[in-house]
Design brief:
By secondary structure, the protein is of the alpha+beta class. It has three helices and six strands.
Length: about 140
Amino acid sequence: MQGLHLTADLHHCQCDERWLTDADALLNWCERSIAAAGLQCVARLAHRFASVEGRPAGVTASLLLAESHVCVHTWPELRSATLDVYVCNFGADHSPRAHALLESLLALFAPSRTERHEVWRGDLTPPAGHGKDQAA
């Protein structure tokens, strides 16, 4: 059950607003990025929140992976998002793929400030060469 859970809180995103408000575009982009990272998407779902005072509202996009999951939550009124990438490392170390996917998401949203965390789940000893917790 050992796996890697990466999270990032993104502030002051400089991306096009559609990435913060368009659930279908975000799901499609995430699915392509998942494949490019060498992971396998097996299902996807998004929820669009009601508009706030006539302005576009945020979305939650969840993608189930054969290796675990990816979730993106957006707040366009704050130009912010949170990212959650979790991979199980059963049978193989998918950690480099999880990191590649997170970096791809960070590049899409282009935040001015990011808070990142890395949590090793299950077996508390990370594979050789991996740190336990980091912030950027």
